[in-house]
Design a protein that fits this description.
Elements (H helix, E strand, L loop, with lengths): L2 E5 L2 E4 L4 E8 L8 E6 L6 E6 L6 E3 L7 E6 L4 E6 L8 E7 L4 E2 L3 E6 L1
Length: 114
């Protein structure tokens, strides 16, 4: 059974940092691109960042550029999202996604207080 399990969310003050993790199990994801999405209450799910299978190529939504960094450790079957300079508008449920297989994690809540 394939699973994507996110962790690392929580409550942080504006300007703070969090590091999210997405651990994959049941299958090796090292050959696949991975991504992060987020969904705030009352809003549609939106793209945050993506990373190629090798980790060489990374992609970000404009509002996250310079603040968020996506990375991966294929030996650990894990993808990370380092989030710095967090803003209240970053408050959302953050989801890990494997597009090649259309697998989603259950999400981890990030709340940024002003």
């Amino acid at each position: 059974q394939v699973q994507l399990v996110e962790s690392g969310g929580g409550l942080v003050q504006a300007g703070g940092s969090l590091r999210l993790s997405c651990a994959a199990s049941g299958r090796t994801f090292s050959s696949y691109a991975m991504g992060w999405f987020r969904q705030a209450p009352g809003k549609e799910r939106e793209f945050v960042a993506a990373i190629s299978w090798s980790g060489i190529n990374t992609y970000y939504a404009d509002s996250m550029k310079g603040r968020f960094t996506i990375s991966r450790d294929n030996a650990k079957n894990t993808v990370y999202l380092q989030m710095n300079s967090l803003k209240p508008e970053d408050t959302a449920m953050y989801y890990c996604y494997a597009p090649a297989m259309n697998y989603w994690g259950q999400g981890t809540q990030v709340t940024v207080s002003s």
